[in-house]
Amino acid sequence: MNAVAQVAATLIRGWREGRQQPLPTLELASEAEAYAVQHQVADALGWFASGPPAAWKLGGAPGGLISAAGVPARAVHPSGWQVPPGDAFGFGIEGELIVRLSRDLDQHTDLAMAYAAVDVWMPGIELCGTRWLQGDQAAPLLRLADQQLNRALVLGAPQTLREMPDWSRQQVTLRVAGEPQFVGVGSHPFGEPLSSLPWLARHAAALGSPLRAGDLVASGSWTGIYWASAGVQVEVEFAGLGRVALST
């Protein structure tokens, strides 16, 4: 069994059994292999049986790899969602701005086209977790293969922006049980929250699942990842753009 097949089989078993899995003995050699694993896992679990992904997560930071994963429709929830018992192996919280596209985007997309294609902006939470038992020791390509740790997206109320904020001054606050755990200003790793959207348009087109009008894109974490405990209320607020909450 080659590395792609072994990693995919292990992750599929983890999803089906609802149990974390030991790290595989074989290493993935490239991002292409990690995305091949994503595809095999999604196919085996029927995530996109009725059509291509309509929601995506973006990740990465300067100097590292930009990453993406399609998000199943059943993993997208409104603000106030309660994570079902046993549904997560951990509660990794990332505060993000999530956009909905008003038009299709192809491999020729640039940053101006990306901004022009946004219909609405939403404060969002990405719930992260790993299917690996030793997740903190997993190589970056294994995390990428594991849907880049995506578990769910939680959406706040949509906002239409007539003018773009000064992103360098955009404040975000992450609260747990009402107490601030992170306060940042201009804390998106790339500065511009949509800076990786042209890359995603190229990536999705290369996969044969180009971005379409109506698609949702979680555009990267403003808060880093905060590991919350079970049984708490988590809230992320973007000043002037609204707030979003979930219960662990």
How would you portray this structure in words?
This is Hydratase. Strands 1, 2, 3, 5, 6, 7, 10 and 11 form an eight-stranded mixed β-sheet that branches. A five-stranded mixed β-sheet has the order 4-13-12-8-9, with no helix packed on it. The chain has helices at residues 3-17, 31-45, 111-116, 140-145, 197-206, and strands at residues 55-59, 67-70, 76-78, 81-82, 91-101, 118-128, 150-155, 171-176, 179-185, 216-221, 226-228, 233-238, 242-247. It has one domain: Fumarylacetoacetase-like, C-terminal domain (Fumarylacetoacetate hydrolase, domain 2), CATH 3.90.850.10. It has five helices and 13 strands. By secondary structure, the chain is an alpha+beta fold.
Summarize the model shown.
The protein is α+β, with helices and mostly antiparallel strands and 248 residues long. 21% of the residues lie in helices and 31% in strands.
**The first-level CATH class name:** Alpha Beta
Mean pLDDT, all residues: 95
Secondary structure category: alpha+beta
Q: What is the CA-CA span between the terminal residues? A: 38 Å
Number of domains: 1
Radius of gyration of CA atoms, rounded to a whole number: 17 Å
**Regions with little confidence, pLDDT below 50 for 5+ residues:** none
For the report, how would you describe the main beta sheet? Answer: 8 strands, mixed
Shape: globular
Number of helices: 5
CATH architecture: Alpha-Beta Complex
Strand content: 25-35%
Quick one: CATH superfamily?
Fumarylacetoacetase-like, C-terminal domain
Helix-strand string: HHEEEEEHEHEEEHEEEE
Q: Which percent range fits the helix content?
A: 10-25%
Keywords: Aromatic hydrocarbons catabolism, Lyase
Organism: Pseudomonas brassicacearum
Family: Belongs to the hydratase/decarboxylase family.
Pfam families: FAA_hydrolase (PF01557)
